[in-house]
Amino acid sequence: MPLYEHVLIARQDVSPQQVDEIVEGLKSEIEAAGGSVKKTEYWGLRNLAYRIAKNRKGHYALIGMEAPATLIAEMERKLRIHEDVLRYMTIKVDEITDDASPVVAKRDRDRGERGDRGGDRGDRKPRRD
Fold first, then answer.
1. What is the pLDDT along the chain (129 residues), one digit of tens a residue?
2. Is 115 domain-assigned?
3. For residue 88, what is the domain's CATH number?
4. How many structural domains are present in the chain?
């Protein structure tokens, strides 16, 4: 079976638990069709590049899966109807890695840098008047 990565964006006014419920529903549908879910990630509430249906932000989630192509078409049909899902994209990939995606890795790296800073802005250059 082919491997896919599926990213979906849910409305900003739903809770992260509701996004998890959407992802869990997709997981159960994939497993019922004989596929398997390799990894899931919740990327959090992020700013959108442009407004989508009056939303400026959206909850992002990633699903890495192995599934038949017919299931992907059916899954996308159901997401098109789902009122909480703004956008989705499914991409066929060669492999699914177990390590964190670049979005999650950057978020974790940024959090670590902020913690090391300690609020000190460092030395300032003298002002020239």
1. 889 999 999 999 999 999 999 999 999 999 998 889 999 989 889 999 999 989 999 999 999 999 888 899 999 999 999 999 999 999 999 888 777 777 777 777 777 665 555 555 666 677 776
2. no
3. 3.30.70.60
4. 1
Tell me how far apart the alpha carbons of residues 99 and 119 are, in angstroms, rounded to a whole number: 31
Domain for residue 75, yes or no? Answer: yes
pTM of the model: 0.76
